[in-house]
Amino acid sequence: METIPVTYCAAGTFSVAEMTPQAYESSVTTGTPTGFALMRKEFDGAIDGYAETLFVYAYGETVGGTYVALESFDGTIDGRRGTCNIAHSATTSGTDRSLEMLVIVPGSGTAELRGITGTGTITIDADGTHHLRLDYSVDESTLSA
């Protein structure tokens, strides 16, 4: 008999504790400057821990742009301890977010997050507070009885 995975929802807030732009010079000139940065994010709530993030962007103050990020998360999600990768991207005109994508990288989970898969969203309040919501499933055999 096939087991139907249980989907959970976890939410928390996060802040960027460190952002270090990296030297980058492209030989191709486009209408938006491109670059990348290394970040450290801190999460609080049902998603609790930290992430080291690769953040790549094409963004101009007057035209907006797009970013792509890959997080290496270490912490707990709904009390399940482990690590996993989260990939996300979005486009902005400067004051909005559109064409958003967020996925937990399949096969990246360890410990109690082994087998984690899912999607999610990032929202930003008017005051700048960042929220992360994950809709996910995990390998139930990693859960404590």
TrEMBL record:
* Stored InterPro entries: DUF3224, SO1590-like_sf
* One matching Pfam family: DUF3224
Full protein name: DUF3224 domain-containing protein
